[in-house]
Amino acid sequence: MAKPVVAVVGRPNVGKSTLFNRIAGKRISIVEDEPGVTRDRIYTEVEWLDWKFTLIDTGGIEPESQELIPAQMRRQAELAMETADVIVFMVDGRDGLTSSDREVASMLRKSHKPIVLTLNKVDNPGQGPSEHFYEFYELGLGEPIEISSALALGIGDLLDEVVEHFPDHAKLEEDDEKIKVAIIGKPNVGKSSIINRILGENRVIVSDIAGTTRDAIDTPFTDGEDHYVLIDTAGIRRRSRIKENIEKYSVIRSFTAVERADVCLLVIDAAEGVTEQDKKIAGYSHENGKGMIIVVNKWDVIEKDNHTMNKFIKMIRDELSYLEYAPIMFVSALTGQRMNTILDKVKYVANQNAMRIPTGSLNEIIGEATLLNQPPSDKGKRLKIFYATQATVKPPTFILFINDKELMHFSYQRYIENRIRENYGFEGTPIRFILREKAKGDQ
Length: 443
Description:
single chain, alpha/beta, Rossmann fold, 3 domains, eight-stranded mixed β-sheet, six-stranded mixed β-sheet, 11 helices
């Protein structure tokens, strides 16, 4: 299921971050009474009724910026138009309609996205129109919704209106027989070129369907008897006015693509190496249990000797140590080098991510592992693993029935994981463990 994206937009100091934190249920955005406060994290996953969606706080105005407020608001509005399914346009109900509000509203109308006009800082929402209520009809955005984010009043009514605008396809389940492949990574690393190579000769393109991730395009295609959907996150437009925030929003776009994918191709620029943005996107894929292939693009521009590739592999493993399971491919979308092997690797990793181990075999592996390397003990009490079973796939998840969770050190759990990998591979996929203590009477 694809998650819709909701962006909160408005001029400074109207309460965007307070609303963001109220909906998220925790203090994520830094809230200050001064406009233009920088916020490090501007997105979160939230739920309302039967819906799950990504909420974005577009506040992020840099305090060092010398630009006028209308220019800053234009940048926020453009980002919201590019990224969101629904836009919450917040204004200050106590201040009344301002020229900045008019300018933002004018831009938002051009987006043709659903806009929910929200009057914040209304002390008694639902108790009759506030003093400036009718002024905002001038914006042509329909009837305003009055709330107080500080007092947590009217927020339920606001969310009811927001989810009314979610696209129908957000509830559609994707075809499980198709391998969904997300091409992720920072801008300008060659994602579009890789997609074009994959969709080259001997590929039957079924159609181009506007995806549920803003500018992303879902491209279903067949390769022999195998069916795929490519989720392209490369469609971020670099405009001068939004350049400062473009990387934050490309991360969000990659996150929404990751959630829908079976396998993620993390594209890294060979000339730049692993960047902080690569780490954020890769970490999100890992946390979501997705299959992962690290694709080092532009390998043709690197001067090489007999040790170059090994040095590069070591650098990636050091920077992305938690992705030790992910295969690394060195390609050039420009020259086509090794591009013909990507789909084979995608299919292999997708199968690994969906693989099940027979329960008997799993317990044999763990039994042998505990004989070769005795479980840890603490204060005379030793860890015992009574039984194991695989609970689910995508990612492969195993339940270990043990005597005491406190005795399962991280290093020993990693040892068990490595033994399972030695026997069954699981290349390209994370492995999860769930620890359950057996009742004393069951031991």
